[in-house]
Amino acid sequence: MPAETIDILLAATLCLIAWRLLGDRDHVRAATLFIAFGLLLAIAWVRLDAPDVAVAEAAIGAGVTGLLFLDAAGRLRPRGDGRRRERPISGGRIVAGTAAALACAVGLTGAILALPGVTDGLRPLVAENVPRSGVEHPVTAVLLAFRAWDTLLEVAVLLVGIAGILAIRREWAVSMRARRAPDPLLATFARAAAPVLVLAAGYLLWLGSTGPGGAFQAGALLGALMLLLALAGVAGPARVPAAVQRAALGAGTGVFALVALGTAITDGTMLALPSGAAYELILTIETAVAVSVGAALGALVLAARPRRTGTAAPEGEEA
Amino acid sequence: MSGAPAIVVIYAAASVVLVALAVRALVARTDVLACIIALNVLGAAVFLLLVALARRAPDGAPDPVPHTLVLTGIVVAVSLTGLAVALLRRLHDETGSTDLDGEGGER
User: Whole-number mean pLDDT of chain A?
Assistant: First the structure.
Protein backbone atom coordinates (compact mmCIF):
# COMPACT_ATOMS: atom_id res chain seq x y z
CA MET A 1 0.00 0.00 0.00
CA PRO A 2 1.28 3.48 -0.76
CA ALA A 3 3.10 5.42 1.92
CA GLU A 4 0.38 8.05 1.93
CA THR A 5 -2.04 5.62 3.57
CA ILE A 6 -0.24 6.18 6.86
CA ASP A 7 -0.62 9.92 6.44
CA ILE A 8 -4.31 9.68 5.60
CA LEU A 9 -4.90 7.52 8.68
CA LEU A 10 -2.82 9.84 10.86
CA ALA A 11 -4.55 12.97 9.60
CA ALA A 12 -7.99 11.41 10.06
CA THR A 13 -7.11 10.27 13.59
CA LEU A 14 -5.85 13.74 14.47
CA CYS A 15 -9.14 15.27 13.34
CA LEU A 16 -11.15 12.62 15.18
CA ILE A 17 -9.27 13.11 18.44
CA ALA A 18 -9.55 16.89 18.14
CA TRP A 19 -13.30 16.65 17.52
CA ARG A 20 -13.68 14.42 20.54
CA LEU A 21 -11.53 16.45 22.90
CA LEU A 22 -12.94 19.86 21.94
CA GLY A 23 -16.46 18.80 22.80
CA ASP A 24 -15.66 16.99 26.01
CA ARG A 25 -17.06 18.41 29.21
CA ASP A 26 -14.84 16.25 31.37
CA HIS A 27 -11.64 18.27 31.63
CA VAL A 28 -9.44 15.39 32.70
CA ARG A 29 -10.49 13.36 29.68
CA ALA A 30 -10.00 16.35 27.39
CA ALA A 31 -6.53 16.96 28.81
CA THR A 32 -5.54 13.32 28.33
CA LEU A 33 -6.85 13.35 24.77
CA PHE A 34 -4.87 16.54 24.17
CA ILE A 35 -1.66 14.77 25.18
CA ALA A 36 -2.50 11.97 22.75
CA PHE A 37 -3.25 14.58 20.08
CA GLY A 38 0.13 16.23 20.67
CA LEU A 39 2.03 12.95 20.43
CA LEU A 40 0.28 12.00 17.19
CA LEU A 41 1.08 15.47 15.91
CA ALA A 42 4.74 14.80 16.72
CA ILE A 43 4.54 11.71 14.49
CA ALA A 44 3.02 13.89 11.77
CA TRP A 45 6.04 16.20 12.08
CA VAL A 46 8.33 13.23 11.57
CA ARG A 47 6.31 12.26 8.47
CA LEU A 48 6.79 15.82 7.21
CA ASP A 49 10.58 15.68 7.72
CA ALA A 50 10.56 18.09 10.67
CA PRO A 51 12.46 16.21 13.43
CA ASP A 52 13.39 19.36 15.35
CA VAL A 53 9.75 20.34 15.57
CA ALA A 54 8.78 16.78 16.46
CA VAL A 55 10.98 16.68 19.57
CA ALA A 56 9.81 20.12 20.67
CA GLU A 57 6.16 19.20 20.10
CA ALA A 58 6.37 15.92 21.98
CA ALA A 59 8.09 17.46 24.98
CA ILE A 60 6.63 20.95 25.11
CA GLY A 61 3.49 20.93 23.00
CA ALA A 62 2.12 17.64 24.27
CA GLY A 63 4.05 17.10 27.51
CA VAL A 64 4.21 20.41 29.34
CA THR A 65 0.96 21.79 27.93
CA GLY A 66 -0.87 18.55 28.64
CA LEU A 67 0.51 18.57 32.17
CA LEU A 68 -0.73 22.13 32.66
CA PHE A 69 -4.20 21.09 31.53
CA LEU A 70 -4.29 17.93 33.65
CA ASP A 71 -3.20 19.89 36.67
CA ALA A 72 -5.86 22.53 36.08
CA ALA A 73 -8.51 19.89 35.36
CA GLY A 74 -7.76 18.16 38.63
CA ARG A 75 -7.98 21.30 40.70
CA LEU A 76 -10.84 23.25 39.18
CA ARG A 77 -13.67 21.36 40.74
CA PRO A 78 -16.98 23.13 41.27
CA ARG A 79 -17.56 24.39 44.75
CA GLY A 80 -20.44 23.61 46.96
CA ASP A 81 -23.06 21.22 45.74
CA GLY A 82 -21.08 20.01 42.76
CA ARG A 83 -23.53 21.30 40.25
CA ARG A 84 -22.61 21.18 36.59
CA ARG A 85 -19.43 23.06 35.92
CA GLU A 86 -20.41 24.45 32.56
CA ARG A 87 -23.78 25.86 31.70
CA PRO A 88 -25.56 24.17 28.78
CA ILE A 89 -24.32 25.48 25.46
CA SER A 90 -26.97 27.67 23.91
CA GLY A 91 -28.12 26.99 20.39
CA GLY A 92 -27.14 30.52 19.42
CA ARG A 93 -23.53 29.92 20.31
CA ILE A 94 -23.45 26.65 18.39
CA VAL A 95 -24.85 28.35 15.28
CA ALA A 96 -22.38 31.21 15.61
CA GLY A 97 -19.55 28.75 16.16
CA THR A 98 -20.44 26.64 13.17
CA ALA A 99 -20.80 29.71 10.97
CA ALA A 100 -17.41 31.03 12.07
CA ALA A 101 -15.85 27.60 11.53
CA LEU A 102 -17.26 27.31 8.02
CA ALA A 103 -16.12 30.82 7.16
CA CYS A 104 -12.60 30.04 8.35
CA ALA A 105 -12.54 26.72 6.50
CA VAL A 106 -13.70 28.27 3.23
CA GLY A 107 -11.32 31.20 3.50
CA LEU A 108 -8.36 29.04 4.44
CA THR A 109 -9.04 26.55 1.64
CA GLY A 110 -9.22 29.38 -0.85
CA ALA A 111 -5.94 30.80 0.38
CA ILE A 112 -4.22 27.39 0.25
CA LEU A 113 -5.50 26.59 -3.23
CA ALA A 114 -4.10 29.90 -4.49
CA LEU A 115 -0.59 28.89 -3.48
CA PRO A 116 1.79 27.19 -5.91
CA GLY A 117 1.85 23.44 -5.50
CA VAL A 118 5.57 23.11 -5.95
CA THR A 119 8.05 25.64 -4.66
CA ASP A 120 11.46 25.68 -3.07
CA GLY A 121 10.53 28.45 -0.69
CA LEU A 122 13.49 29.93 1.15
CA ARG A 123 15.44 26.70 1.13
CA PRO A 124 17.95 27.73 -1.57
CA LEU A 125 18.64 31.03 0.16
CA VAL A 126 19.21 29.26 3.47
CA ALA A 127 21.35 26.55 1.87
CA GLU A 128 23.71 29.01 0.27
CA ASN A 129 24.19 30.96 3.51
CA VAL A 130 24.49 28.09 6.00
CA PRO A 131 28.28 27.77 5.51
CA ARG A 132 28.64 31.35 6.74
CA SER A 133 26.50 30.86 9.81
CA GLY A 134 28.92 28.91 11.98
CA VAL A 135 26.74 25.79 12.15
CA GLU A 136 25.83 23.09 9.65
CA HIS A 137 22.22 22.33 10.48
CA PRO A 138 19.83 24.59 8.51
CA VAL A 139 17.17 24.90 11.23
CA THR A 140 19.77 25.88 13.83
CA ALA A 141 21.31 28.33 11.37
CA VAL A 142 17.95 29.99 10.78
CA LEU A 143 17.12 29.96 14.49
CA LEU A 144 20.34 31.43 15.82
CA ALA A 145 22.13 33.08 12.92
CA PHE A 146 19.64 34.38 10.37
CA ARG A 147 16.58 34.95 12.55
CA ALA A 148 18.29 35.31 15.89
CA TRP A 149 16.21 38.37 16.71
CA ASP A 150 13.01 36.30 16.69
CA THR A 151 14.60 33.73 18.96
CA LEU A 152 15.76 36.39 21.38
CA LEU A 153 12.22 37.74 21.60
CA GLU A 154 10.86 34.23 21.99
CA VAL A 155 13.10 33.57 24.99
CA ALA A 156 12.06 36.93 26.41
CA VAL A 157 8.39 35.99 25.97
CA LEU A 158 8.97 32.83 27.99
CA LEU A 159 10.56 34.89 30.75
CA VAL A 160 7.72 37.41 30.75
CA GLY A 161 5.24 34.54 30.90
CA ILE A 162 6.88 33.09 34.00
CA ALA A 163 7.08 36.50 35.61
CA GLY A 164 3.39 37.00 34.89
CA ILE A 165 2.46 33.63 36.36
CA LEU A 166 4.42 34.28 39.54
CA ALA A 167 2.82 37.70 39.82
CA ILE A 168 -0.69 36.28 39.38
CA ARG A 169 0.02 33.61 41.95
CA ARG A 170 1.50 36.24 44.25
CA GLU A 171 4.59 34.16 44.76
CA TRP A 172 8.23 35.00 44.50
CA ALA A 173 9.72 31.67 43.68
CA VAL A 174 8.81 28.13 42.75
CA SER A 175 8.96 25.26 45.16
CA MET A 176 10.36 21.86 44.28
CA ARG A 177 9.51 20.40 47.67
CA ALA A 178 7.69 17.12 47.83
CA ARG A 179 4.01 17.37 48.65
CA ARG A 180 3.63 13.83 49.84
CA ALA A 181 5.82 10.82 50.60
CA PRO A 182 7.59 9.80 47.39
CA ASP A 183 6.49 6.66 45.62
CA PRO A 184 9.56 4.39 45.93
CA LEU A 185 9.45 3.12 42.34
CA LEU A 186 9.13 6.59 40.90
CA ALA A 187 11.81 7.90 43.24
CA THR A 188 14.26 5.19 42.19
CA PHE A 189 13.52 5.84 38.55
CA ALA A 190 13.98 9.58 39.02
CA ARG A 191 17.35 9.11 40.68
CA ALA A 192 18.51 6.74 37.95
CA ALA A 193 17.17 8.87 35.13
CA ALA A 194 18.55 12.20 36.35
CA PRO A 195 22.17 11.82 35.19
CA VAL A 196 21.02 10.23 31.94
CA LEU A 197 18.72 13.19 31.27
CA VAL A 198 21.50 15.67 31.94
CA LEU A 199 23.79 13.78 29.57
CA ALA A 200 21.07 13.52 26.92
CA ALA A 201 20.30 17.23 27.20
CA GLY A 202 23.96 18.11 26.77
CA TYR A 203 24.21 15.79 23.79
CA LEU A 204 21.11 17.26 22.12
CA LEU A 205 22.51 20.73 22.68
CA TRP A 206 25.81 19.77 21.09
CA LEU A 207 24.13 17.93 18.25
CA GLY A 208 22.12 20.98 17.25
CA SER A 209 24.95 22.40 15.21
CA THR A 210 25.08 19.43 12.84
CA GLY A 211 21.70 17.76 13.11
CA PRO A 212 18.27 18.04 14.66
CA GLY A 213 18.65 19.30 18.18
CA GLY A 214 19.68 22.48 19.88
CA ALA A 215 18.73 24.73 22.73
CA PHE A 216 14.99 24.18 22.89
CA GLN A 217 15.14 20.44 22.64
CA ALA A 218 17.85 20.32 25.33
CA GLY A 219 15.83 22.75 27.43
CA ALA A 220 12.78 20.50 27.14
CA LEU A 221 14.80 17.60 28.55
CA LEU A 222 16.10 19.74 31.40
CA GLY A 223 12.56 20.87 32.17
CA ALA A 224 11.44 17.26 32.18
CA LEU A 225 14.26 16.47 34.59
CA MET A 226 13.20 19.29 36.91
CA LEU A 227 9.60 18.11 36.88
CA LEU A 228 10.58 14.48 37.37
CA LEU A 229 12.63 15.33 40.45
CA ALA A 230 9.93 17.54 41.88
CA LEU A 231 7.00 15.24 41.19
CA ALA A 232 8.84 12.14 42.35
CA GLY A 233 9.60 13.89 45.60
CA VAL A 234 13.35 13.41 45.45
CA ALA A 235 14.26 17.08 45.24
CA GLY A 236 14.72 16.75 48.96
CA PRO A 237 14.84 19.39 51.64
CA ALA A 238 17.54 21.28 49.75
CA ARG A 239 15.99 24.56 48.76
CA VAL A 240 16.74 26.36 45.57
CA PRO A 241 17.09 30.01 46.59
CA ALA A 242 14.92 32.46 44.77
CA ALA A 243 18.01 34.27 43.53
CA VAL A 244 19.31 31.12 41.85
CA GLN A 245 15.91 30.50 40.29
CA ARG A 246 15.79 33.98 38.86
CA ALA A 247 19.35 33.65 37.58
CA ALA A 248 18.46 30.41 35.79
CA LEU A 249 15.28 31.88 34.35
CA GLY A 250 16.95 35.05 33.18
CA ALA A 251 20.20 33.53 31.90
CA GLY A 252 18.95 32.79 28.41
CA THR A 253 17.48 36.22 27.77
CA GLY A 254 20.42 37.89 29.49
CA VAL A 255 23.19 36.17 27.56
CA PHE A 256 21.31 36.57 24.31
CA ALA A 257 20.72 40.27 24.95
CA LEU A 258 24.37 40.74 25.88
CA VAL A 259 25.50 39.21 22.60
CA ALA A 260 22.99 41.37 20.76
CA LEU A 261 24.29 44.47 22.49
CA GLY A 262 27.89 43.47 21.89
CA THR A 263 27.39 42.88 18.18
CA ALA A 264 25.43 46.13 17.92
CA ILE A 265 28.35 48.03 19.39
CA THR A 266 31.17 46.32 17.53
CA ASP A 267 29.47 45.63 14.22
CA GLY A 268 26.73 48.22 14.03
CA THR A 269 24.12 45.52 13.36
CA MET A 270 22.51 43.67 16.23
CA LEU A 271 23.16 39.92 16.27
CA ALA A 272 25.43 40.03 13.22
CA LEU A 273 27.73 37.32 14.52
CA PRO A 274 31.38 37.71 13.46
CA SER A 275 32.17 34.77 11.17
CA GLY A 276 35.26 33.77 13.12
CA ALA A 277 33.47 33.36 16.42
CA ALA A 278 29.97 32.54 15.22
CA TYR A 279 29.95 28.89 16.30
CA GLU A 280 31.29 29.66 19.78
CA LEU A 281 28.82 32.48 20.28
CA ILE A 282 25.93 30.34 19.08
CA LEU A 283 26.93 27.54 21.44
CA THR A 284 27.15 29.96 24.37
CA ILE A 285 23.77 31.43 23.61
CA GLU A 286 22.26 27.97 23.17
CA THR A 287 23.62 26.74 26.49
CA ALA A 288 22.18 29.70 28.35
CA VAL A 289 18.88 29.37 26.50
CA ALA A 290 18.69 25.64 27.26
CA VAL A 291 19.14 26.30 30.98
CA SER A 292 16.51 29.02 30.91
CA VAL A 293 14.02 27.02 28.89
CA GLY A 294 14.45 24.08 31.25
CA ALA A 295 13.96 26.27 34.30
CA ALA A 296 11.00 28.05 32.71
CA LEU A 297 9.20 24.87 31.67
CA GLY A 298 9.65 23.42 35.13
CA ALA A 299 8.51 26.65 36.73
CA LEU A 300 5.45 26.83 34.46
CA VAL A 301 4.12 23.59 35.85
CA LEU A 302 5.37 23.87 39.43
CA ALA A 303 3.96 27.37 39.83
CA ALA A 304 0.51 25.88 39.28
CA ARG A 305 0.67 23.85 42.46
CA PRO A 306 -1.49 25.13 45.30
CA ARG A 307 0.06 27.86 47.36
CA ARG A 308 1.14 27.07 50.83
CA THR A 309 -0.86 29.24 53.19
CA GLY A 310 0.84 32.48 54.00
CA THR A 311 3.46 32.55 51.28
CA ALA A 312 2.79 36.09 50.16
CA ALA A 313 6.18 37.42 51.21
CA PRO A 314 7.16 41.02 50.57
CA GLU A 315 10.80 40.15 49.99
CA GLY A 316 12.38 37.32 48.06
CA GLU A 317 11.87 34.16 50.04
CA GLU A 318 13.46 30.80 49.58
CA ALA A 319 11.53 28.12 47.78
CA MET B 1 -2.01 23.81 -5.54
CA SER B 2 -1.60 21.63 -8.59
CA GLY B 3 1.25 19.20 -8.55
CA ALA B 4 1.73 19.37 -4.80
CA PRO B 5 2.98 16.17 -3.16
CA ALA B 6 0.18 14.06 -1.70
CA ILE B 7 1.53 14.38 1.81
CA VAL B 8 1.23 18.18 1.62
CA VAL B 9 -2.40 17.99 0.49
CA ILE B 10 -3.33 15.49 3.19
CA TYR B 11 -1.94 17.48 6.09
CA ALA B 12 -3.07 20.83 4.69
CA ALA B 13 -6.62 19.45 4.47
CA ALA B 14 -6.33 18.13 8.03
CA SER B 15 -5.20 21.53 9.23
CA VAL B 16 -8.26 23.20 7.67
CA VAL B 17 -10.53 20.71 9.46
CA LEU B 18 -8.69 21.29 12.74
CA VAL B 19 -8.97 25.08 12.36
CA ALA B 20 -12.71 24.74 11.79
CA LEU B 21 -13.17 22.44 14.80
CA ALA B 22 -11.11 24.68 17.07
CA VAL B 23 -12.86 27.89 15.99
CA ARG B 24 -16.24 26.29 16.54
CA ALA B 25 -15.26 25.19 20.04
CA LEU B 26 -13.74 28.59 20.82
CA VAL B 27 -16.97 30.39 19.93
CA ALA B 28 -19.47 27.90 21.28
CA ARG B 29 -18.06 26.84 24.63
CA THR B 30 -18.32 28.98 27.73
CA ASP B 31 -15.90 27.15 29.96
CA VAL B 32 -12.54 28.92 30.12
CA LEU B 33 -10.35 25.80 30.23
CA ALA B 34 -12.18 24.44 27.17
CA CYS B 35 -11.43 27.70 25.37
CA ILE B 36 -7.74 27.54 26.31
CA ILE B 37 -7.57 23.98 24.99
CA ALA B 38 -9.33 25.07 21.80
CA LEU B 39 -6.79 27.88 21.39
CA ASN B 40 -3.98 25.35 21.61
CA VAL B 41 -5.60 23.08 19.04
CA LEU B 42 -5.99 26.13 16.77
CA GLY B 43 -2.29 26.86 17.17
CA ALA B 44 -1.40 23.24 16.43
CA ALA B 45 -3.53 23.39 13.27
CA VAL B 46 -1.69 26.48 12.03
CA PHE B 47 1.66 24.83 12.76
CA LEU B 48 0.55 21.77 10.82
CA LEU B 49 -0.32 23.94 7.84
CA LEU B 50 3.02 25.77 7.97
CA VAL B 51 5.10 22.60 8.15
CA ALA B 52 3.01 20.91 5.46
CA LEU B 53 3.51 23.87 3.13
CA ALA B 54 7.24 23.70 3.82
CA ARG B 55 7.35 20.32 2.14
CA ARG B 56 6.46 21.48 -1.38
CA ALA B 57 9.96 21.38 -2.89
CA PRO B 58 10.31 19.18 -5.98
CA ASP B 59 13.07 17.04 -4.48
CA GLY B 60 11.29 16.57 -1.16
CA ALA B 61 13.73 18.37 1.14
CA PRO B 62 11.83 20.73 3.44
CA ASP B 63 12.16 24.48 3.75
CA PRO B 64 13.72 25.10 7.19
CA VAL B 65 12.28 28.58 7.78
CA PRO B 66 8.69 27.47 8.55
CA HIS B 67 10.15 24.80 10.86
CA THR B 68 11.85 27.56 12.80
CA LEU B 69 8.64 29.58 12.92
CA VAL B 70 6.76 26.60 14.31
CA LEU B 71 9.47 25.87 16.87
CA THR B 72 9.19 29.46 18.07
CA GLY B 73 5.41 29.18 17.98
CA ILE B 74 5.37 26.09 20.19
CA VAL B 75 7.41 27.84 22.88
CA VAL B 76 5.28 30.98 22.72
CA ALA B 77 2.12 28.86 22.86
CA VAL B 78 3.23 27.13 26.03
CA SER B 79 4.01 30.48 27.66
CA LEU B 80 0.57 31.72 26.64
CA THR B 81 -1.09 28.58 27.97
CA GLY B 82 0.76 28.78 31.27
CA LEU B 83 -0.29 32.38 31.75
CA ALA B 84 -3.89 31.67 30.72
CA VAL B 85 -4.18 28.74 33.11
CA ALA B 86 -2.71 30.84 35.92
CA LEU B 87 -5.32 33.52 35.24
CA LEU B 88 -8.03 30.87 35.24
CA ARG B 89 -6.81 29.52 38.56
CA ARG B 90 -6.90 33.03 40.01
CA LEU B 91 -10.43 33.52 38.67
CA HIS B 92 -11.46 30.27 40.29
CA ASP B 93 -9.78 31.19 43.57
CA GLU B 94 -11.48 34.56 43.70
CA THR B 95 -14.98 33.73 42.44
CA GLY B 96 -15.36 29.96 42.36
CA SER B 97 -16.40 30.21 38.74
CA THR B 98 -14.66 28.85 35.66
CA ASP B 99 -17.09 30.36 33.22
CA LEU B 100 -16.28 33.00 30.62
CA ASP B 101 -19.02 35.27 31.91
CA GLY B 102 -18.35 34.54 35.52
CA GLU B 103 -21.53 32.53 36.06
CA GLY B 104 -21.74 29.68 38.47
CA GLY B 105 -19.50 31.35 41.00
CA GLU B 106 -20.31 31.65 44.65
CA ARG B 107 -19.11 35.14 45.38
Answer: 86
State the angle between helix axes of A91-113 and B6-28 in degrees (0 to 180), rounded to the nearest 10: 160
Whole-number pLDDT of residue A307: 60
d(CA B72, CA A66): 18
| Closest residue by Cα to residue A223 from A204, A243, A242, A207 | A204
- Pairwise CA distance, residues A298 & A279, whole Å: 28
What is the distance of C-alpha A173 from the center of its chain?
20
Q: Give me the pLDDT at residue B15, please.
A: 97
* 3-class secondary structure, B99: strand
- Beta strands (DSSP E) in chain A are none
CB contact under 8 A, A11 and B16: no
pLDDT beneath 50, residues of chain B: 107
Cα(first)–Cα(last) distance of chain A, in Å?
57
Provide the 8-state DSSP code for A169: T
Contact A123 B64 (CB under 8 A): yes
CA distance B54 to B7: 11
Nearest to A231 by CA among A198, A187, A193: A187
Coil, helix or strand at residue B31: strand
| Interface test with chain B among A26, A146, A165, A302, by most B beta carbons within 10 Å | A165
Would you state the torsion angle of the CA atoms of residues B44, B46, B49, B50, taken in this order, to the nearest 10 degrees? Answer: -100
Residue A304 is classified by DSSP as T
Q: Which residue ranges of chain A lie beneath pLDDT 70?
A: 77-86, 178-180, 235-238, 306-319
| Residue A124, helix vs strand vs coil | helix
pTM: 0.91
Best of A1, A41, A43, A86 to substitute, by most chain B Cβ atoms within 10 angstroms, is A86
